Amino acid sequence: MMSLEEELIRQLRPSTEVEERLDKAISELVRLTEVSISRTGSPLEIILVGSVAKGTFVGTPDIDIFIQFPVDVERRELERLGLRIGQEVLGGERRYAEHPYTHGTFQGFEVDLVPCYKVADAGQLRSAVDRTPFHTHYVLERLIEGQRDQVRLLKKFMKGVGVYGAEARVHGFSGYLSELLILTFKDFSGVVKAALDWRPGLILDVDGAANGGGNSPLTFADPVDAKRNVSSALSLDSFCLFIHACREYYASPDVRFFFPREREPWPMPEVERTFTARGTHPLVVVLNRPDLVDDNLFPQLQRSALGLRKLLEAYEFKVMDHSYAAGKDVRVAFELERDALPVGRLHQGPPAWTANADEFLAKWRENGLSQPFLSEGRWVVYVQREFCDPAALIEQKGSDAALGNDFRSLDGMRCCSGPKVYRTGNLPVLSKIIDKRENWRV
Q1: φ, ψ (nearest 5 deg) of residue 327
Q2: Cα–chain center distance at 438
Q3: Are strands 319-326 and 329-336 parallel, antiparallel or unpaired?
Q4: How far is it, in rounded angstroms, from Cα 162 to Cα 413?
Q5: How does DSSP assign 240-296, residue by residue?
Q6: How many CA atoms lie within 13 Å of 42's alpha carbon, on the beta-carbon side?
Q7: CA distance 383 to 193
Q8: What is the pLDDT along the chain (442 residues), one digit of tens a residue?
Q9: What CATH code is assigned to 268-340+388-441?
């Protein structure tokens, strides 16, 4: 009888049909790219990188093909020719990392066609993507028999838990980092057991040396570029959630860590009852969705949500929690301690013995909601609060917040609060605040 992990590995291995389709698509992509390159008259090379090249993908993979340019080619020319080749081969759309590349679909697979420089080693990088071929070579050279299955198992565990992916939506473990963890701890069980004792500030390398005192939750030195932290995108919450998941899985292994149930929004009456029981007040800000791919949308959405939260807090609205969601539009929800503030607030003035004390008294004797009075040696006075209603604050001052570039105009913005907040369109973003269950407990 197979163990849980053996059965999972059997399920996660790509089928013969998928591998044959993948090989066929790659061969044709390479052929078309070679034809396009021949038209440029430039000595460019093609290299397959990423999880497909390393044989560590899970599910339907993305195909990553890099076009390597000589280092003496100017960046502008690299971008021009790289995009031209991408357009001829894929059509697709232009996307941006450190420089533009082409994304499209081909024979049922998502494809990235990326120009880069062919440098001698990682110490001579001209752009960040130049490092990727070295990552691919490093992992291919060191993975031994059976470890590809262990990488797949670890990746699926991280996906199920909700910590896989270095993008802004997740701030989790990248595919390359998961491969390095398997190389370091030998197999999935080794990673899980090691994580039981992890603490924030952990410093690791592929030789298994572990130290504390790092400035990030996890610092993992890139073996092809020692100055780079492979886990720089990993947030403290994702790091801690992984540790927690490993502890729970170690105590009680279950398939739901790898294949969690689909999380459904809570019924709206239950959402409303929960906020009422807490005595807190939800506020939802609705915005038009910019025409951006997720990799560009979510960093801006995260920045905008934090910017609006700081705006609320600057005007003394206490924010308990916030969440955001993107569908046909974009919605940011805040859970507030109070849905309104008093008209009056206490305004602190200077110490009574300072030179500007008289100026403070002259200003506020006629303009305050009280006469100035002394408290701990300082003059204070009740003044009228500028905003008592959080929705009015965002509607009038929202553009002053630190927002993502494509949200700064606040196109189509509207705020929902009070009874109006409990509308069907707000259910997904409100549920994210209410439903804090771990994925494997859904």
Answers
A1: -130, -125
A2: 18
A3: antiparallel
A4: 30
A5: HHHHHHHHHHHHS--GGGTSPPPPPPPPHHHHHHHHHHHT-EEEEEEEEPPS--HHH
A6: 22
A7: 58
A8: 669 999 999 999 999 999 999 999 999 999 999 999 999 989 999 999 999 999 999 999 999 999 999 999 999 999 999 999 999 999 989 988 778 999 999 999 999 999 999 999 888 888 889 999 999 999 999 999 899 999 999 999 999 999 999 988 899 999 999 999 999 999 999 999 999 999 999 999 998 777 888 899 999 999 999 889 999 999 999 999 999 999 999 999 999 999 999 999 999 999 999 999 999 999 999 999 998 888 889 999 999 999 999 999 999 999 999 999 999 999 999 999 999 999 999 999 999 999 999 999 999 999 999 999 999 999 999 999 999 999 999 999 999 999 999 998 888 899 999 999 999 999 999 999 999 999 999 9
A9: 3.30.70.590
**H-assigned helices in 162-267:** 175-185, 188-195, 236-251
E strand or H helix at 103 = strand 100-106
> Which CATH number is 143-257 given?
1.10.1410.30
- CATH 3.40.50.300 assigned to domain 4-141? The reply is no
Q: Across-strand partners of 345?
A: 383
Looking at the domain covering 344-384, what would its CATH class be?
alpha beta
Which residue is it, tokens 């073996």?
A: 223
CB 184 within 8 A of CB 246: no
Q: Which residues on adjacent β-strands are paired with residue 326?
A: 330
CA angle 57, 122, 43 (to 5 degrees): 85
Closest by CA position to 209, among listed 196, 224, 194, 187: 194
- Sequence-ordered list of residues with C-beta below 8 angstroms from that of 296, at least 6 positions apart, any chain: 95, 96
Same fold: 4-141 with 143-257: no
Rounding to the nearest 10 degrees, give the CA dihedral for residues 409, 414, 416, 420. -170
Domain ranges of the chain: 4-141, 143-257, 268-340+388-441, 344-384
* CB distance 278 to 319 below 8 Å: no
Nearest in space to 340 (alpha carbons), one of 389, 393, 276:
389
Using CB atoms within 10 Å of the CB of residue 32, give its burial: 0 to 12 exposed, 13 to 18 middle, 19+ buried.
Answer: middle
CA dist., res. 136 & res. 240, Å (int): 28
* Backbone dihedral angles phi then psi of residue 117, each to the nearest 5 degrees: -95, 145
